[in-house]
């Protein structure tokens, strides 16, 4: 399947996964800088790990387990919107990915 952003296949090499994750992390860093969001080193590591897992799911089509939207009621709308921008960079991930990613963003916003 090719949606114009990421080509999905049943296999993806570690190099392909890392390259996509690195590209998205670069874009996340620019988005964070524009909004003066400064994750600490531990938060950066957790974000990098999550984005790499997102890259894997994007490239292989692997699905997330069911996620309950109610768990994210306390996440700020701004963090959810920024997370959705990031998810949109992949072009083929579901909204649940944005909900999960928004937690990293909300926590990093607390550093301001």
Automatic annotation (TrEMBL):
Coiled coil, from the record: none
Residue ranges of every copy of the PRD domain listed in the record: 12-112
Gene3D superfamilies in the cross-refs: PRD domain
The organism's place on the tree of life at top rank: Bacteria
InterPro entries attached to this UniProt entry: PRD, PRD_EF0829/AHA3910, PRD_sf
A biological-process GO annotation: regulation of DNA-templated transcription
Name of the protein this chain belongs to: PRD domain-containing protein
Originating organism: Duffyella gerundensis
